[in-house]
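Example for tutorial group B:
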């Protein structure tokens, strides 16, 4: 028989090509997998009576799962005297459908492997007459595919633990799932790209998105730059030979990093409280301001709250870079500075042309990661300002809201799961694109 016929046999009946090649162990294993899928479909469905057959009423795990993923249900539940009637729950159907697709994907991958294995084995028999015993095949597979065999259980687990929620979150962006359309009393429908057009359009949603996006990018850039600059300055000063008790100073500067960021943000929120905060009261008592300053809640001056957020983030973030840069400074050979001093370079010139380039090269990936972290820095913004002050031109967003805090409000405060899902996709695209672009341009991963 030709190799392709045995491959076709394995595609039509699991394990048949292996049986024809007299590989009984592999054939039996593949047959059990295929039979298990068929049995699971039959046991979970209603195939004893096929009169009036529909995928909804008769389908099993796979058929009903695929039907539910395509339709998201056809009969909503209604409230009756006896309680909720039997109906469809769109979200449950979507999740079951995703699981069915993932399982079918694994079976398809197994089938592809079985087809290639049957054809390859038959080709070897024709050309060389060599037939591997079960033990020989196991030893050969262990040598050639050992990493894949070890990683396979973990990859399968990650497929359902990680891929399932990600796919579910992406699919929600193409539905009308919101607080006004919640199952099981209402069915969720597919709406295509309508949510993307709404969020990226010229209306109020588009104005809010691009306004929040602009501030988010500016916030991430300023938060990363300021913390890095102050951390670099502190690391250089503390590492100077003129500074006494450097360990004591490092310990003091590490304190803001040691305190949980949420606690620090709440403390600063109380300090900058416009009505009762001590800072506003001190300014009035000293005659600096005629009245209390609404640091975080003045809708006419959102930049005041933004500057406070940047200062608080600077306080919380510079110890991280100070610690990293201090470690990088220890790897710079003292001979470099000795040569620079012999050439007449001043201390400032040594820092600018010697220390800074070396440190930047070593910490470039960490700067990118810090930018990504600040892009999604939920804690500082939310616990300090809760996104305020209010902005009447925005939809469910305030003057200091970044994309991640706006996403939180859309989901938990307003139940707009469809728009929030679109937001999560856009955040992933923006952050992922920037990370790939910046890391590829960085010299940190190139050969010296």
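The residue assignment follows.
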């Amino acid at each position: 028989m030709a190799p392709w016929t045995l491959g076709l046999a394995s595609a039509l009946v699991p394990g048949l090509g292996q049986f024809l090649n007299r590989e009984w162990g592999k054939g039996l294993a593949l047959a059990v997998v295929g039979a298990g899928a068929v049995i699971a479909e039959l046991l979970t469905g209603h195939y004893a009576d096929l009169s009036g057959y529909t995928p909804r009423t008769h389908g099993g795990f796979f058929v009903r799962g695929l039907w539910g993923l395509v339709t998201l249900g056809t009969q909503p539940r209604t409230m009756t005297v006896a309680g909720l009637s039997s109906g469809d729950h769109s979200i449950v159907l979507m999740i079951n459908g995703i699981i069915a697709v993932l399982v079918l994907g694994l079976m398809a991958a197994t089938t592809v492997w079985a087809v290639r294995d049957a054809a390859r084995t038959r080709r070897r028999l024709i050309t060389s007459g060599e037939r591997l015993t079960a033990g020989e095949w196991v030893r050969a597979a262990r040598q050639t595919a050992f990493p894949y065999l070890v990683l396979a259980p973990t990859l399968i687990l990650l497929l359902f633990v990680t891929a399932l929620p990600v796919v579910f979150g992406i699919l929600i962006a193409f539905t009308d799932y919101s607080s006004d359309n919640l199952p099981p009393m209402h069915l969720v429908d597919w709406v295509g790209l309508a949510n993307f057009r709404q969020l990226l359009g010229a209306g109020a949603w588009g104005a809010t998105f691009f306004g929040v996006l602009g501030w988010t990018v500016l916030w991430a850039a300023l938060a990363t730059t300021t913390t890095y600059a102050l951390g670099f300055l502190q690391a250089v000063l503390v590492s100077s030979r003129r500074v006494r008790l450097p360990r004591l100073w490092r310990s003091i500067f590490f304190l803001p990093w040691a305190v949980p960021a949420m606690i620090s943000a709440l403390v600063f929120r109380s300090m900058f409280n416009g009505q009762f905060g001590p800072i506003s009261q001190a300014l009035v008592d000293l005659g600096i301001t005629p009245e209390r300053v609404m640091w975080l809640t003045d809708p006419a001056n959102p930049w005041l709250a933004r500057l406070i957020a940047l200062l608080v983030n600077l306080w919380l973030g510079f110890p991280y870079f100070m610690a990293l840069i201090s470690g990088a400074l220890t790897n710079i050979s003292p001979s470099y500075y000795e040569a620079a001093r012999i050439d007449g370079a001043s201390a400032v010139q040594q820092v600018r042309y010697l220390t800074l380039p070396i440190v930047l090269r070593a910490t470039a990936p960490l700067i990118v990661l810090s930018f990504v972290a600040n892009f999604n820095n939920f804690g500082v913004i939310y616990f300090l300002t809760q996104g305020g002050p209010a902005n009447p031109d925005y939809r469910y967003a305030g003057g200091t809201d970044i994309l991640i805090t706006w996403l939180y409000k859309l989901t938990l405060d307003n139940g707009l799961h469809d728009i929030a899902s679109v937001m999560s996709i856009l955040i992933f695209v923006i952050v992922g694109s920037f990370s790939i672009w910046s890391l590829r341009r960085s010299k940190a991963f190139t050969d010296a």
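The mean pLDDT is 90. Compare this with the pattern of hydrophobic and polar residues in the output above.
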